[in-house]
Amino acid sequence: MEGHLCRCTGYRSIYDGFKTFAKDLCCQRGPCSDDSSCCKNKPESKHDTSCCLFDLSSLKPYDPSQELIFPPELMLDKSTKPSSLDIKGTFVRWLRPSSLKEALDLKKSYPAAIALAGMIGAGFGKNSSKENPTTVLSLSHIPELNAVKVDEKGVTFGAAVSMATLESTLRDVIQSSQENKTRSLSAMLKMVALYGSVQIKHAMSISSNILPASSTSDLNTVLIAVGAHLVAISTEGQKRTILCDDKFLLSPGKTSLADNEILFSVHIPFTTNPSEYISFYRQSRRHANDTAIVNAAFRVHLDKKDNGYSVVDSMIVYGGVGSTTVIARKAMESIKGRAWDESIVSHALTQLQEELVLAVDLGQVEYRQSLIQGFFFKFYSDVSNVITNDQPMTEQVSIPFKSSQTFEPAEDSQKEEDMIGRPLAHTTAIERATGVAQFVDDIPQRRGELYIVRLLSDRAHAKILSIDVTEALDMPGVEAIIQASDVPGTNNIGVIPDEEIFAKEKVVYAGQPIAAVVAETKDEAQRAAKKVKVVYEDLPAIITIKDAIAANSFFEESHSIVNGDVDSGFDAADHVLEGEMYVGGQDHYYIETHTSLAIPGENNEMEIYCSSQFPSYIQGTVSQVLNIPSNRIVVRTKNVGGAFGGKIFRASQVACAVAVAAYKTGKPVRCALDRDDDMQNCGHREDYLVKYKVGCSKDGQIVAFKAVYFGNSGAALDLSILIMEKLLLNLDNCYKIPNIDVTGRLCKTNIAPNTAMRGLGSSQGILFTESLMSDIAKKCGIPERKVREQNMYKEGNLTHFNQSLRDCTIRRVWSEMMSKSHYENRRLAVDSFNKQNKWKKRGIFVMPGKYGIGFTIPDFMQSGALVSIYTDGTVRISHGGVEIGQGLHTKMVQVAANALGIPVSKVFNCAISTDTVPNSSVTGGSYSSDINGMAVKDACDKLSKRIKPYKVTNPDGKWEDWVQAAYADHVSLSSTGYYQSRHFTYSWKTNLGQAFKYFVYGACCCEVEVDCLTGDHTILRADIVVDIGKSLNPAIDIGQIEGGFIQGAGMYTIEELRFSPDGRLLTTGPKTYKIPTSADIPKEFNVHILKESRNDQAIHASKGSGEFSVLLAPVVFLAIKNAVNAARCDIGLDEIYRFDSPATCERIRMACGDQLKNKLASI
């Protein structure tokens, strides 16, 4: 599970899928043997709340004979000796010897060859050429290097042994040996358990971890601590033994191995002294599949004396604090002979601070220093506990995942084939799960197809003095190089339009396309792109919001909302708080990057397959860029591998580039961005800074609020206006603010244009507001729950933008949340935990949520549909919405089946195409089911009316009979449908009118645990209650709620976009940018859809569910802050303080204050 990255589901559904293979499968709400307590064994009725998202009885029973196996055709016969390989490519030669002798001979013949066993991160071959190809010597199939030997001294592993084999061997030996003998192995096993996923452990070998000599290598750190010995063998067959230490690990990529040597084996000795203790520690940005920021391994040999213990010998090793693994020799020497008591901690930490001076360019210096100290203190505490309790050092037991989901079941009177309100599986779930679903880059290659790779600027702001493509054009396979001068129509696109497809005279952000190399293959295009020479003249760059404010660099577009008398409100306030808060941006990290395929036709026709949320926009933009009419361009979008707002306008960059290339060459052209190019060029969720002033009464009632919200739009406007508008309209969350004056400003900076992302604008504004409510509670000295309740909206209240709240269920939702989460009892338990624990603190937080549904762009509030009935009774529907994985097509199938009175099995939702449903709107904003559902229903209602006479004349007939009769009677069985919402009448000038169609309400309670020494956090539990009306499909909606919440939790905690001072994005892929894994989700995750709620403003009384849970995710951030508050109170820090988002481990640790320093000061 932890090896899987998913941006959509929140992982619960994946857990459920895996659990169906388990023998002890249960709903987790009661013992499996107790039918009355297991919710999945309860019968449904209209008075009950259902919790069955899928029917267990529909699953095939377990059959051992059908267990998945490795294909026999691909298995090597164990008796067959692996053969040698010599594969010669254009740029890389791969040599795989099958014996040790052959390997040594090849090493002698190719001394510069890269010797490896298992996966490495060196990226060999990237700098290769025909004249200087890279030679790789693969040692993975040599028997001696895969050997494992256990003797009385320890365990010896061949250098090619995988990390998975290392782990299983360590576990077996530990289980069969005495505890005091295997403490070195236990430390190793702890390291391997934290190392990575099962997939990575099988791919990586011991040597591939040791030889890069990486500063953050977990394996090297613990090998040094346990006193491991390495054996090297020369090309002459001579072996030598080397102690694994800092004399072996010289610098990144360099060890003391001679040029004619390879690593042969690693020996891990048993622990020989009962008073010797060893352990390993690490801290990374997320819990699984992440490189350590700092790691540490310690070994201490103690001598027991009458008055306690003293140190005989020790080993103190750190990774991530220097250029390679570091041994703190001075600190080791200084504690030798000292008593093992609290005084040794103070002494050791002083020595470590003096000895380990961190270079500034390492980054996070203060935090890394705190980890150096914190890890040593953890080791001291762990060893002291072992000595005191006379028990072996144990690891924290992992908490098993559990969850529940409840929703209102369908009425008993509802027909069985009517799937409205029932948890129907995603119509393409099987295809997506098995890899059958076809995305753009899965489309088979067309004859003569070419590939483009765009050349991106590495400067944030510079004039382009010259572009030399001569050498690139001479590269093999290159067909053409596209520049701004090759664009037949306009080179400027976007909302204004203010963004170039290819930079012409200057670049305005790092990652901006300058040209595109068109070649026969992607590899050829990439190699040629590196040969394009661009000469720049650098210009001053504006990167951050603070830079923009200082330079007065803003877009002209701005909005304000003023309501009431702010000045009078502040005059009447008992307390006035002023301050600033920042929330960082977030990458969409859709699994499918931006991808497009353009196929030119005759008469200037162009067919484009595009991963986009807005095919009609792509059509119109390509029309302008090629200077040909829209009726010659067809855009098709079938499956999109995630979008989250990032494929609305940003998809046009790639689509236009391939269209221009196809237009120029007359051949099909494809482009699928690599992850780093996508992240550099395609924008993110905007980071925001708020400067605020709030006044309140002594009992916590808000009486005045004034703020300016600064958004980092980047180098072009894109959808920043809409983002700002949504922020200003939703910033109140659930609170009545009588006097308000708020303004949004859009900063123009030299980073890639930022764009829409799930919960656009509102995700930033609501975090600011909820953080402010907490500060008000602290200032007034009253419970946070009370502050929220007395400021909370009631039915009929007017918002700050003067819209009346109709069917406002927030107080009902809030009450249900308090009941279902057992908030008050858990709050007392958290307080008790915090009093008993100094180094770990818990926080519990509960917040309400309100979100207005609908766009402030009226053109986006319409859609069309085409429904066709065939003579066999099957139905094909097409509508203006895009299936991004969110289940839109599934819901539309349910709507069509309901409207026509037929089973869903007869309805097929085909891909969207601009020649089928023209002028479609964007898919997003939690409104797609509403507008497309109504359009589909409109078309189906027309068809039902046409078929009705044949049902009347043949009431005992079947659907197929009526269809045949209508067809025979020359009745059209195809119809278009259309829907438009005219709800948006709001005026920014007058602050009057209706801004939203309706509101979604909800609440969330979250409990977390924070490690005050490292800043690590764990989400222990999250409970969500949402009012989404009558759910069209509870399975789809609950999945959206869970996925949105986890995506939001990532935004507010571990996901951090980092830029260099000169504007280059540093977090450009999975190695540097971290999204949540299954290890980061709540250990208990409960979702409840409010029952008996109806919304008469949307299809079948439903509400949009796609974005709202992102806006509940600030609860994680604020629960963490709650835990940090407890830590700060312990050391006398009780004032209001600034705590910015995301709450990374570094930010958490530094906010906790220097508890360790205070502790040591008392010794």
Written account of the structure:
The chain has 1163 residues and is of the alpha+beta class. The protein folds into 5 domains: 83-138, Uridine Diphospho-n-acetylenolpyruvylglucosamine Reductase, domain 2 (2-Layer Sandwich), CATH 3.30.43; 143-389, 2-Layer Sandwich (Uridine Diphospho-n-acetylenolpyruvylglucosamine Reductase, domain 3); 448-540 and 588-682, Alpha-Beta Complex (Aldehyde Oxidoreductase, domain 3), CATH 3.90.1170; 688-855 and 990-1152, Aldehyde Oxidoreductase, domain 4 (2-Layer Sandwich); 858-980, Aldehyde Oxidoreductase, domain 4 (2-Layer Sandwich), CATH 3.30.365. It is 29% helix and 23% strand. The protein has an 8-stranded mixed sheet with strand order 19-23-17-30-27-28-29-38, sandwiched between helices. A 5-stranded antiparallel sheet has the order 5-6-11-7-8, covered by helices on one side. A 5-stranded mixed sheet has the order 16-42-41-40-34, with helices on both faces. The longest helix has 26 residues, at 928-953. The model is unreliable at 28-37, 42-47 and 121-126 (pLDDT under 50).
